[in-house]
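Board notes (copied after class):
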Amino acid sequence: MPHPPSRRPAPPSGPPHPDPGLQPERTTMAWGRTLLSFVVVSAVFLRWLPQHGPFVLVLFGLAVLTAGSIYLTQRSRYARSARGIAREVSAPESGAVLSTALAVLVLGALGIWVVLVLV
């Protein structure tokens, strides 16, 4: 006797929480702006290449790596935040914020060093 096809419940068609204008969407947009900023900074570093030499490629790589990590973690970060809102228990993304702040500090310090020392 053949088995009847299993029926999975359909995934919800809307957002995983009742208010689509809530914090997860705003946070996602803010991370998107941060990602765009790192892409622009990486393009600026490429413009520095003829004047400041190949060390600028390290800066470019760090900026692109940071932008890529933001892009790759964006979907899971949104899902975690939306589930937290739905369950009324949400934790801040301290690791992502700290690592992004560290990347900004390192890129800024190295950028200043390149401009002042590698003239």
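Comment from the instructor: The mean pLDDT is 84. The two ends are 80 Å apart (CA to CA).
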